[in-house]
Amino acid sequence: MRTVDELARASEEALALVARQPDVREAEVFVSANSAVLTRLNYTSHIPCNGVEEPKSTESYGLGIQAVFDTPEGPRIGFGSEPSDLSVGGAERALVKARRAAVADLEFVSLPSPTRAARTLADYHDPRLMALDDAGLVEAGWKITGGALRTFSASSRLAEFAQDDEGLRRLGLILGGDVTILRERMAIASTTMPRAQTDETSLITAFATAMVETRGAKGSGASTGTRLDHFTDEAGVEAAQNAIAAIGGERVPSGTYTVVFGRQPVADLLNNIVIPACTASSFYSSSTPFLGKLGRAVASPRVSLYDDGARPGFMGSKGITCEGLPTGRTALITHGRLVGCLSNWYETQRLLRDPALGEKLGATGAAAEAALAPRNGFRFGSGVLEGAEAVALDELLRRVGNGLYVGRIWYTYPINGLRAGDFTCTVVADSYIIRDGRIAAPLKANAIRINDNIATFLNNVTGITKDVKGTIVWAADEVVYAPEVAVTGVRVDEIAGFMEELD
Fold it and tell me: Which residues contact 193 (CB under 8 A, 6 or more apart)?
């Protein structure tokens, strides 16, 4: 993997090349090297298997140039990139592509310029993760698999169905998933920031799905982190525990329920509905349910949501954005009121100059500028949801009395457009029926869908747990540090169980 020094040198050399071009008004050069390594988990008790598969990896590097060209028709902006070549020759080819691709953009103001904010996060990556070899990665995979197998073996519930180890194997114990490490290095130099700025990040995630096949039971587990020495068997243990707990799942009829959303559903709803609605681009295009509501209530006073791109130890934290600007904390919702947006330089500049700014955002002048600080250019978000008067899960269940605990949802997406706020999702695992303030029975997987509006989720909050956990969901650009959230009046629709009826 290319070193940070190599990337910095390449960015400055490319910028020098671009600066010599008489038709270039301003430019920025972005150089990066990225690596992803993973090992897949594949244990089946009743079929020969490896338990942990061989490691796989991808690695890439390259540079990109974004330049503003002076032309007789006026300024034009273009971008060009060149993979696997950091030389001046690679920069020349990227510049040719940028010139050919240049177009007029009437909404473009300028490339990013330094802000008054100072960088606060540096040298925060884990060198052990950056240097971990295949053997170390496989060892991490076996840590997850081993945790699941120990949990299965120690289960008194499974012992009811199996008298010995052979009987346990015949239950069809399955574990799938992966352990993944992402490693990123980047450098950026520009006309207004000619000295290369660099950043280096690493993270490790584990996802596991466990099954007791003969009992039709499934559970999942996950863990996230930024340090190898904090990595444990948590994901495997959690997946096996949830699979065991899912044995004997029950169905519930369609209706309106009080629902405790677990961390994964909270993260999924934020990733797919709430966070996209809090971006400057959504306000510019008038596609957010929060249109014109800056400073106004959009959620329960119990709810606060913020992004903290510079918080040490958080998965989405970085020292700088990919625009070269310092990261920092951006409050989005504070005690139920919308107070800010996720934005990059381009989106901030064009929205601030939009004649309909007041109508779209709900504020102008200094209030709008503060709400649109460009701290999130092309960076994974690191959303944190917090609740006023947060409580332990047992207390939250007691307050709910009767309802549902939803631990994992799938295929969450907005319907009728993001602005409407309507969404749908399927409850797929790790879910339970709450009776008399306690978890009483498992909820059958894939037996209900939630069809509601995000306003219900945000405004009908009756309680939030005090413990948050880093949570990643499929194909997401954000990492959410999520608690469990109790919401009243959630619409649930039963999914017909045709196969169950045939049985």
Answer: 28, 112, 113, 114, 324
